[in-house]
Amino acid sequence: MYTAVVECLRSIVNPGIDENTQDEWSWDAQTKITARGLLATMMSYHFLVTFICVRAVLQTVKPLASKLQKHDLDVYEARTLITDRVERVKEMREGVDAEFEAWYEDCKRIANELQIEEKVPRTCGRQTQRTNIGSSTPQQYCKCTVAVPFLDHLSTELNDRFNKDDSVAYAFSCLVPKQMVTLSDSEIQKLSSEFFFWESDLQSSSSQDLLGYMLEWKRACGKLGEKGITADNLLDTYRIADGDIFPDIKTLLHIGCTLPVTSSGAERSFSGLRRIKS
After folding, report:
1. Which of the given ranges, 65-74, 94-103, 251-260, has the highest pLDDT on average?
2. Within a 10 A sphere around the Cβ of 153, how many other Cβ atoms?
3. Of 82, 168, 176, 202, which one is least surrounded by beta carbons within 10 A?
4. More confident residue, 179 or 40
5. CB-based contacts of 106, cutoff 8 Å, min separation 6
6. Are 155 and 89 in contact (CB under 8 A)?
7. 235-255: per-residue pLDDT in tens?
């Protein structure tokens, strides 16, 4: 829609410029001033490159943002999706040369349609207020000032936001058999300490008792794999776990299945309350 938005702004700034428009447009002065400012920004080549790069990168995390708002998503599936998207952003950063090549072709196509000049800001010896990168071509300049910094920033933010060490989702995902069998005894001991946060719901009197249950659960998960019994999420694991043999594991899986992934459901309840009150 980039080209269409530019044409719309041009028509607001210069009424009658579009021969296909039958009616005469009439805009107030403030609207024209705002449209003129937006048009000047969108006709900047640097802005166009930034727009294309951000759009291409955020397309990879848009499914994550939509999926995390679902009410039927458990923490294990959320963690799997998050890990996949973080890895995808990392791949884009490592292959930024090839990725940016495709993005830049889109930029040049739109620039040709709108007659936007392909250029970069001038550089000088004492530049302190903006990026001052010497480059031989506009493509190289835009890659160094737009694509690489944005991918680095997004990767850092995703890693900080979904830190594995601080993630409750990571702890519960370890109860899934195919994850459990890969853990070492020291990792299981650390998990048992974290899970003891729910001691009021557990039968174990200490984290050491819970550790014993978890070590036995690891052995049971190995036998399940040998029998060909698989569980790909927390709900399937909850169904195959024997509550008589592993009561605390069953309780933890119950908590993991019902634990909200995000606050979206709670926030929607306030929106619904306003309509109900009306």
Report:
1. 94-103
2. 10
3. 168
4. 40
5. 52
6. yes
7. 888 888 888 888 888 898 898
Place of tokens 């702004």: 9
Listed residue (106, 95, 10) closest to 49, CA to CA: 106
pLDDT of residue 256 exceeding 80:
yes
Residue 241 CB-half CA count within 13 A: 25
Tokens in use for 202?
């557990």
DSSP letter at 229 equals -
Return the pLDDT at 76: 76
Mean pLDDT of 28-53: 92
**CA angle at 61 for the pair 60 and 65, rounded to the nearest 5°:** 145
What are the tokens at 145?
A: 């000032």
CA dist 51 and 21 (Å) reads 29
111-145 exposure pattern, b = at least 16 Cβ within 10 A, e = fewer: beeeebebebeeeeeeeeeeeeeeeeebbebbbbb
Q: Percent of the chain, pLDDT > 70?
A: 87
Say how far apart CA 46 and CA 105 lie, in whole Å.
Answer: 14
Q: Which of 190, 262, 253 is nearest to 220 (CA)?
A: 253
Helix (H, G, I), strand (E, B) or coil at 54: helix
- Give the DSSP per-residue string, 83-111: HHHHHHHHHHHHTHHHHHHHHHHHHHHHH
Q: Which tokens hold the place of 226?
A: 């040998």
Q: What is the pLDDT, as a whole number, of residue 53?
A: 92
Task: Give the model's confidence band at 123: pLDDT under 50 very low, under 70 low, under 90 confident, else very high.
Answer: low
